[in-house]
Amino acid sequence: MSLTRAARSADEARWFKSSYSGQDNGGGCVSAAALAEHVGVRDSKQADGPAVLMPATAWAAFVNELRAGRL
Known about the structure:
Layout: H1 3-12, E1 16-17, E2 30-34, E3 38-43, E4 51-55, H2 56-67
Antiparallel strand pairs: 1-2, 2-3, 3-4
């Protein structure tokens, strides 16, 4: 999937809010959407704002590093 096509898919994607959004985090919330080969991440308070699109493999590596406490 091209990045342009992924961006169009992000506009139609089903976004979900981070499970940490309800915790005492100073209002910092993110939403994510799983696309065919990418993951979209955006500020949940600005649903119409920009989103960062990254390969799903990069997102998985990022989450694994967070869970392992290395980030």
